[in-house]
Specification:
Helix content is 60%, strand content 7%. By secondary structure, it is mainly alpha-helical.
């Protein structure tokens, strides 16, 4: 991805005409694009984080740098330090997953369950029907006031929407017998 495209994706615009290219917001977005090496998934995750957390690009950049240093110190050996992509992707994913955990713990539990499944065409119905066996919902989650009037299926749907927002899954619909629509998520 080119720098211009990465900045468009990060800021959410289709033209440079509406952007103050000398402003702090643009310069911070430009630095994020450079640090993320213009990788589309990393840029999309950063944008989702900034929008959802309602933080500035400057705040995200600072969190990214702090988290990157922590990941390098804790997870990688010295000989791995040359692999910039590994650290960058790990940092972006870590920031996103930490944020998702604070918003929707069910979403993180579903991601952990997905680790044991084939990544393509995982039926959303599987999680809706097997939530108790998979222990996706905690007692506090099902009894909280925000979910009081909705059941486990709605909680699973909310978790899937979080994944889609953060570009962690894509969702498709597939028609099957009796006009039942089966939603499938691809991790």
């Amino acid at each position: 991805m080119q720098e211009r495209e990465a900045i468009f994706l990060l800021i959410g615009v289709s033209s440079m005409d509406s952007i103050d290219q000398q402003g702090a917001c643009f310069l911070d977005a430009q630095e994020i694009a450079v640090v993320l090496d213009y990788m589309p998934l990393a840029i999309a995750l950063a944008r989702a984080y900034v929008e959802d957390a309602q933080c500035s690009f400057k705040d995200y950049l600072n969190m990214f740098k702090e988290s990157k240093e922590r990941i390098i110190r804790l997870r990688y050996k010295n000989e791995d330090n040359s692999d910039v992509y590994k650290h960058m992707v790990a940092t972006v994913c870590q920031l996103s997953l930490e944020h998702i955990q604070t918003k929707n713990s069910t979403a993180v539990k579903i991601l952990k369950a997905c680790a044991f499944l084939q990544a393509e065409n995982i039926s959303v119905c599987f999680f809706k029907r097997q939530y108790s066996i998979l222990k996706l919902l905690s007692n506090s989650a099902t009894s909280s006031s925000s979910e009081e009037n909705s059941g486990p299926r709605q909680a699973i749907e909310r978790a899937i929407r979080v994944f889609i927002k953060f570009s962690l899954v894509t969702q498709t619909c597939e028609n099957v017998k009796d006009n039942e629509v089966v939603q499938r998520a691809t991790c």
